[in-house]
Amino acid sequence: MRVALVGQPGWIELLAALLNEHGAGAVAAEAYHGRKALRLLGRKRESDVLLRVGYRPGAPTPRGVAFDTWWSLVERAHPGIPTVYYWIGTDLFNARADAAAGRLRRPFERAAAQAKHVAAAPWFVADLRELGVDASLVPFPTPLPDIAEPYPLPDTFSVLTYLPMGRSDHYGGDTVIRAARAMPDVPFVVVGREGRPIPEAPGNVESMPRQPTLDPCYRASTVVVRLVRHDAVGATVKEALVHARQVIYSYPLPFVERVAHDDAPALLDRLVKLRAKHESGRLQLNTQGRDYALAEFDTALLLQRLLRELENASS
Questions:
Q1: pLDDT, tens digit, for every residue of 193-241?
Q2: CA-CA distance, 210 to 200, in Å (whole number)?
Q3: Taking the chain, what is the end-to-end CA distance rounded to the nearest angstrom?
Q4: What does the alpha-carbon distance between residue 293 and residue 215 come to, in Å, rounded to a whole number?
């Protein structure tokens, strides 16, 4: 099967590499972005399926209008070749906002009716249904940490979270900082800021420099917090579960504790209770969460599920 991937550059490059690696020679996937994407206009029937990742149809922005115009030309250059949309996060968040404001354009309706859709999270399936889109569930197949056994919980109770530069509010930054202020003796480690401190953070909040791998951060943590406003199944959640850490997340998953992204009292309550269990020696590795993550988010398994969806679209 020949798959042409178009969309968010980093994600389509990763997905194309994974499809080629795990496709056992039966898949030829290629990512098209930047100037390379123009080649799709001259390639007729050299792909069996077009996979659009993370770029929503019907966006009212100038860039969205331009991309939809280009996309219609690509589809004309590949008559009869099916299109699959892979909804992975911000694309759906923005599409819902556009729909609520009455800004969605006709390309969205056309895609909803004519294309196949795949969603990267269970709650995405429900959100898309509200927009009139039928979608199959395939969590995005990010590689999992390769660890045979999880490290024991550290002696010191500590919290790890992800607050990227420029998007701290989207990831519950204020909620996390309020909890850190209320627990001044608990280390809070932040990744995603390239080591730059958070100006309003108390002294127990440390911003980690860029790391080649976050495995040491997971090993040194007791609890991983991800309070995002809108999310697929976040990589930090999957990785934390593989490390058998306790997880507090803003979405419902087995073996994690759910807290809304802006609910500071609830976050503090969960952390205080977890610390009490830790100090009394009753807090254990989250082995059930690890088993769940290894079974549900196995990269090869998810790629096979995605390939079945692509095959169904092209059959």
A1: 888 889 889 999 999 988 888 999 999 999 999 999 999 999 999 999 9
A2: 21
A3: 11
A4: 16
Which helix (H) or strand (E) segment is 118 a member of?
strand 116-119
Interatomic CA distance for residues 297 and 121, integer angstroms: 11
pTM of the predicted model as reported, rounded to 2 decimal places? 0.93
What value, to the nearest 5°, has the Cα angle with vertex 4 and ends 15 and 96?
Answer: 70
Burial bucket for residue 206 (CB in 10 Å: 0-12, 13-18, 19+) = middle
- Answer whether 161's CB lies under 8 Å from 176's CB: yes
**Strand, helix or coil for residue 299:** helix
Distance in angstroms (rounded) separating the CA atoms of residues 12 and 230: 20
Burial class (CB in 10 A: 0-12, 13-18, 19+), 6: buried
Domains with residue ranges and CATH for the chain: 2-142+298-314 (3.40.50.2000), 159-296 (3.40.50.2000)
CA distance 98 to 210: 35
How buried is 23 (Cβ within 10 angstroms: 0-12 exposed, 13-18 middle, 19+ buried)? Answer: middle
Radius of gyration of the chain (CA): 21
- 205 three-class SS: strand
CA distance 261 to 267: 9
- pLDDT one-digit tens code per residue, 126-168: 999 999 999 999 999 999 999 999 999 999 999 999 999 888 9
Burial of 120 (0-12, 13-18, 19+ CB in 10 A): buried
DSSP letter at 210 equals P
On whether the CB atoms of residues 200 and 177 are closer than 8 A, the answer is yes
CA distances (Å), origin 90, targets 93, 142, 178, 220, 303: 5, 17, 26, 30, 21
